[in-house]
Amino acid sequence: MSLFRPRSDARAPLDGVDAVLADLDGVVYRGADAIPFAVESLNLAKRERAVGYITNNASRSDASVARHLAELGLDVVADDVVTSPQAAMHLLAERVPAGALVLVVGGEGIVTELERRGYRVTRSADDAPAAVVQGFAPDVGWTQLAEAAFALNAGGFADEHGIPWIATNMDWTIPVARGIAPGNGTLVSAVHTAVGRFPVVAGKPETPIFDEARRRFAADRPLVVGDRLDTDILGANRAGMASAVVLTGIDRAKQLLAAKAAERPDFILGDLRGLHDPYPVVERSRDAVRVGRAKVRLDGDAVVVVSDGADELDLLRAACAVIWDSGHPIHALRVPERLYS
């Protein structure tokens, strides 16, 4: 996959796409409020293809998420929402039969999915659960983390031979209305420190949640839209899906310029209106890259802005192309500070 299309093929990111798989936090909403242009752009996209919402947040059920999205004005039902607990259920079914007792660390999102599939739920290691499923909820504290550790260490096990342990996701942070807060990865890390092993992970950037979405929407040519390179974009690349990063959430210009090869998107969008617009072509000459009227070149180890052009986003796209094409890590290059803004 490539960041830019050749000059003769200036298509919109949605051209040829049969399903849009949109992240939520930082893409559709920030806190309780919709991000500008997100609702209109996604409703328009749904006129010609499936639109799904793929989220690592395990604290809410699919129905709860769908109600929130509908209140924002989106055309959505519960089946349009793919959650990390749903992906976790496929991993659990491979390891533990239906009807088994499962210790839950987390909230409604996990409990709902377990009960749908016939599992029994406990919060106590004393009940000798057959597995542990761990996800984020705002009220998770030491007591729940300790119960997980007790269950995973039952019988003296402190290695990979204990009962199955499945984490919905490993996001280190989560965006909330007041700012950036610790995510499920920090909570999983606390249990890992106590038990000496790692869980199997269902959510982004691992592939189970993308596999669940592909099955759900029977998608052959999906486009993943996210705001985080290390979860949304890395996961899409691992799953063999096209991807677009939108600069309304966590990652911005600085992270894009420094992106590792596995975390580079096919498209860079300012907001979701860009899904419908022809994506700019790239012109590569011997000494420079041009996108629109922006032009950037590499002079030794210096990234040089030849022309800012008329669009800051085109300048960022051109700078990313130059840096990514160079094969050098960003710390080995001199990059103008204004490109980071």
From TrEMBL:
Domain GCN5-related N-acetyltransferase-like, residue spans: 295-327
One short Pfam family name for this protein?
A: Hydrolase_6
Q: What is this protein called?
A: HAD-IIA family hydrolase
Keyword Hydrolase: yes or no? Answer: yes
**Which GO cellular component terms, listed alphabetically, does the Swiss-Prot or TrEMBL entry include?**
cytoplasm
Name the Gene Ontology molecular function terms of this record.
phosphatase activity
Q: What NCBIfam families does the record point to? A: HAD-SF-IIA
Q: Which Gene3D superfamilies match?
A: HAD superfamily/HAD-like
Protein keywords: Hydrolase
